[in-house]
Amino acid sequence: MISIKKFIERAGQEHLEATLASYRSALNAMGESGVQACPPVGFPMRQSLLHLQAALAVESPPSLLQETGQKVEAELIQWGCGAADYFKQRAAEVKELMMVLARTAELTGERDQRYSRQFQEFTCRLQAMADFHDLALIRDSLLKSALELRTCAETMAEESQKSLARLREDMGVYQARLDDAERLAGQDPLTGLDNRRRVESSIEFRMGRQKAFAIMLLDLNGFKQLNDACGHLAGDEILKQFSAELKSGFRATDVVGRLGGDEFIVVLDGGLQDADAQVERISRWVFGDYTIRLGDASRKVAVSAAIGTAAWQAGDSLQTLLDRADAAMYKAKRAAKPPERDRRSADPQ
Predict the structure, then answer these.
(1) Alpha-carbon gap, residue 324 to 196, rounded angstroms
(2) Mean pLDDT taken over the chain
(3) Mapping DSSP to helix (H, G, I), strand (E, B) and coil, where does residue 213 land?
(4) In angstroms, rounded to a whole number, what is the distance separating the alpha carbons of residues 151 and 323?
(5) Which has the closest alpha carbon to 217: 185, 246, 253, 245?
């Protein structure tokens, strides 16, 4: 009976732990999905969900679980409202731009009609002069008409310049907004590196040029264990610091991006030899100890990555190139792991 009781208690504990682990994973997935769907409002939600996730533990009382559920619901509602407002604002900006163009076209049409009537009056006046017999009268009428015509032309030119200046100013504002939106659409919200979409576009652009280039894939070693031990917020801090160091290690013409999670990619001009030379530089200058904050304390964490390189070859598709670099990266990761027998022998008995 005692054994059965212990079994039931242990099974209940394992069930609780599995449920909490699933709940924590669901919170992380919600945050990641929110960032992907609408980065400007998704990233704050993800940070809030990670804080809630970090507070969950097996010994958490039911009241904390209920409170967490209510906070998660509130975060999702707030994200939904924020995302709706964001896309509504984007739509309003496009509508406003269209209205600017419509107003400009309308004003141009009204101006042209106004001056068209004036030119018709000049024509009628000139035709009427054909019936004049007094040369002095004809001369005075021609001089008056010429002055009016010159004034009209100068006014038209001035109004056209003002209209063009206003249109250029309005278009400049909207161009800046579009550039900003395009930048955000191609940027990873956590690290500031290029996201997968922009990286893949850069690769396809280089394929179209038919010039030599290579890619480098990086996968951080032991990142899951770091997240499990220190929490996702600490993991995010490592990702941001590593991204900044990785970006600084390459040329401005190279593309440095984050594919997702702890996977990074670099696209650089040149062949495989150039890429392999960069691997050595990255290993020396980017890998090493990083400092993270854990509450009021700090901790040094050793950060390294498995790296795989591949050079583009004529006929390669985007996926073929990525697969080849991915295979090289995992080969490097397997080679870096100690043999299973050695690891078992190192475990405490």
Answers:
(1) 17
(2) 76
(3) strand
(4) 71
(5) 246
- Residue 26 pLDDT more than 60? yes
Residue 214's pLDDT band, with cuts at 50, 70 and 90, is very high
Using CA atoms, how far apart are residues 58 and 320, in angstroms rounded to an integer?
Answer: 44
Token reading at 265:
């990619």
Q: Domain 196-338: which CATH class?
A: alpha beta
Parse the chain into domains and list their residue ranges: 2-87, 92-185, 196-338
Asked if 173 contacts 232 with a C-beta cutoff of 8 angstroms, the reply is no
Threshold 0.70, pTM exceeds: no
d(CA 262, CA 102): 48
Whether 121 shows a pLDDT value over 90: the answer reads no
- Looking up tokens 């163009």 gives 101
Pairing of strands 297-303, 255-260: unpaired
243 touches 283 (CB < 8 A): no
**CA 332 – CA 310 distance, rounded (Å):** 13
Residue 308 has pLDDT above 60, yes or no: yes
Q: How far apart are CA 250 and CA 265, in angstroms?
A: 12
* Residue 81: other Cβ atoms inside 10 A: 11
Whole-angstrom distance, CA of residue 121 vs CA of residue 53? 79
Kind of pairing between the strands at 255-260 and 263-269? antiparallel
Residue 96 one-letter amino acid: E
